Amino acid sequence: xxxxxxxxxxxxxxxxxxxxxxxxxxxxxxxxxxxxxxxxxxxxxxxxxxxxxxxxxxxxxxxxxxxxxxxxxxxxxxxxxxxxxxxxxxxxxxxxxxxxxxxxxxxxxxxxxxxxxxxxxxxxxxxxxxxxxxxxxxxxxxxxxxxxxxxxxxxxxxxxxxxxxxxxxxxxxxxxxxxxxxxxxxxxxxxxxxxxxxxxxxxxxxxxxxxxxxxxxxxxxxxxxxxxxxxxxxxxxxxxxxxxxxxxxxxxxxxxxxxxxxxxxxxxxxxxxxxxxxxxxxxxxxxxxxxxxxxxxxxxxxxxxxxxxxxx
Amino acid sequence: xxxxxxxxxxxxxxxxxxxxxxxxxxxxxxxxxxxxxxxxxxxxxxxxxxxxxxxxxxxxxxxxxxxxxxxxxxxxxxxxxxxxxxxxxxxxxxxxxxxxxxxxxxxxxxxxxxxxxxxxxxxxxxxxxxxxxxxxxxxxxxxxxxxxxxxxxxxxxxxxxxxxxxxxxxxxxxxxxxxxxxxxxxxxxxxxxxxxxxxxxxxxxxxxxxxxxxxxxxxxxxxxxxxxxxxxxxxxxxxxxxxxxxxxxxxxxxxxxxxxxxxxxxxxxxxxxxxxxxxxxxxxxxxxxxxxxxxxxxxxxxxxxxxxxxxx
Lengths: 312, 312
Hints:
- Chains A, B: InterPro entries: PurM-like_C_sf (IPR036676), PurM-like_N (IPR016188), PurM-like_N_sf (IPR036921), ThiL-like (IPR006283).
- Chains A, B: Catalyzes the ATP-dependent phosphorylation of thiamine-monophosphate (TMP) to form thiamine-pyrophosphate (TPP), the active form of vitamin B1.
- Chains A, B: Keywords: ATP-binding, Kinase, Magnesium, Metal-binding, Nucleotide-binding, Thiamine biosynthesis, Transferase.
- Chains A, B: Belongs to the thiamine-monophosphate kinase family.
- Chains A, B: It is an enzyme of class 2 (transferase).
- Two copies of one chain form a homodimer.
- Chain A is α+β, with helices and mostly antiparallel strands.
- Chain A folds into two domains: about 5-140, CATH 3.30.1330.10; about 160-295, Phosphoribosyl-aminoimidazole Synthetase, Chain A, domain 2, CATH 3.90.650.
- Chain A contains nine helices and twelve strands.
- Chain A has helices at about 5-15, 65-80, 100-115, 165-175, 185-190, 200-205, 215-230, 245-250, 255-260; strands at about 25, 35, 40-50, 85-95, 120-130, 135-140, 160, 210, 230-235, 270-275, 285-290, 295.
- The first copy, chain A, has a six-stranded mixed sheet with strand order 8-10-7-11-9-12, sandwiched between helices. In chain A, strands 3-6-4-5 form a four-stranded mixed sheet, with helices on one face. Chain A has a two-stranded antiparallel ribbon with strand order 1-2.
- The radius of gyration of chain A is 20 Å and the shape is globular.
- The interface between A and B is large, with 74 and 74 residues.
């Protein structure tokens, strides 16, 4: 049955019936606004929008996958501040011929990804549109800590990574060439595996700067370098390129480092730590913060795809 | 210059440069997420999306007008909980040929409307899209009060209104018939005048239920009646139909009460109060809560347009 047939209020009722309510949700969907707990008298908030044909394709990803990914993109931004996500709000624009089941499964994906961190979908809005669009807002709690921002990196700090790099970009390339395997890469594109806990962990460990890798590691660390007025030098050998990624890169005629260093959407976290602190468990050291500016790999400018610009 | 020409990061830089930072914004745009104060350990949050061709037309409203309206739709939802807005986040989807100035002026409108209540635009996201879409999330603070929800109306309560009814719907009809006057109505459609302060005022005064009139008074009070398991009877004479609206209605062959009772988007607030409390200054009594269910006008079912469904 199409969403046009059940109408706005019918669709909202069907979707909200599927959403669980998390412990931080004091008043859930159904009123003018939701009420969410903000235990430390501050709330962390971010918004990320996914547009069909630009951020996802319905023939490449299921509705549930797209829900997982839309939630993950936002939850990762909250984690990158050192915070714990508490809630999602979702503005959903649907072509009227979309099946109701698609919208329900999207909600399932959003709710399931949020539940991984104890958060829930607390509100939203729906409209018809010719372009399928999912705009998500995430809220989070800092637990009394200072937010970890982009401009705190200092020369001498080490640069470390939590999570995967290049998997989602490789999966995207695989799909865009018409293949459906290797599954490891395609599934990584469909549902990123975000190291949410590593964000608060890094904050507790004294991270000086942190960012979610959404545009590509070089582009995102470039934002840290610019904001902190420092340079960052990465060590190519520090990056793990798994065999399946090497094989896919060979088969497709791609430099796998363009995925690892230039690909976003795995939502890894990148952070800088004072050298004498060491790095937390589960993080991998990949470079150093240096005086100067810009990004280098093994001391030299990297000549490859540096990330995405969504208007180009 | 088109948004495609300046690119995503250029556009973000130009737009954020125009945004002021309000007193509740602890960390503004430019990082993975913003940080907003939430003094009473709870945050009120809602999302509303405006889609070109469905919620606005660029030939009917300026970018600044659309910014005001997108902000107002969300800020009114926060007020309708009895809360004071603290922050907006904006997900903006733009066709690549849109002029940069249009996006800048939209941001000006969003920021100016938020500033009316001491809030500011603290974050957002941008993407290219074939459909111009503005998804706004608003946050707010309850100041220690309980949220005023939809399900608290009791038989015997009085129903009261703050703000205008039917002006925006009349302006919409005027524009859709190809006219540009009367200005009073057209301007009301372009920039609603929302009684933001009346929301917290009603909460302090002991309102038992409250809602923002966005779909039309009958539709929105219908939500209150359903949620509270009561009926609501409105008194037609209690509604002020200004002369310019009567004249426009005559000229266009429209029943002005279809605008007043069925038109949304002025973002008036409707609330119920225990009869012995009276109603706060600036509110107008328009009816009573009764046993039973559904909406009546002067004791009879109203036969007219009852509001909008955005998928039909």
